[in-house]
Design brief:
The protein is an all-alpha fold and about 100 residues long. Helix 1 packs parallel to helix 3. It starts with a helix and ends in a 9-residue tail after the last helix.
């Protein structure tokens, strides 16, 4: 079984990234039209990454052998890194989105 401290740390890291994701989502939905469009393009990737981490965490908590525990622990770490990186990229894209001129509406 995985060390409980490690599982707790991974869960806390995931919760922190989820809070950042929720804040980003709320801010992006209230931003200008261009930023919302960029956000909509990236949301599916972010949700998929989040779901992958959730799945890996649940498998880690249910792992019965040390080998499976190590495998899922590595999987959670990789998934968390991918989620965090995807979130950073999405934030950069949304922050760099320029408002559309009014004549495009």
């Amino acid at each position: 079984m995985a060390d409980n401290n490690e599982v707790d740390t991974l869960s806390q890291n995931f919760a922190a990234i989820c809070r950042e994701f929720d804040t980003f989502s709320q801010k992006s939905r209230q931003d200008n039209l261009t930023a919302r469009l960029v956000y909509e393009q990236n949301i599916t990737i972010l949700q998929r990454c989040k779901q992958q981490v959730e799945t890996s965490l649940s498998h880690l908590k249910k792992a019965e052998s040390d080998e499976m525990s190590r495998y899922y622990c590595d999987s959670v770490k990789k998934s968390l890194a991918a989620f965090k990186e995807s979130l950073k990229h999405a934030q950069m894209k949304v922050n760099s989105a320029r408002p559309m001129p009014p004549f495009f509406f």
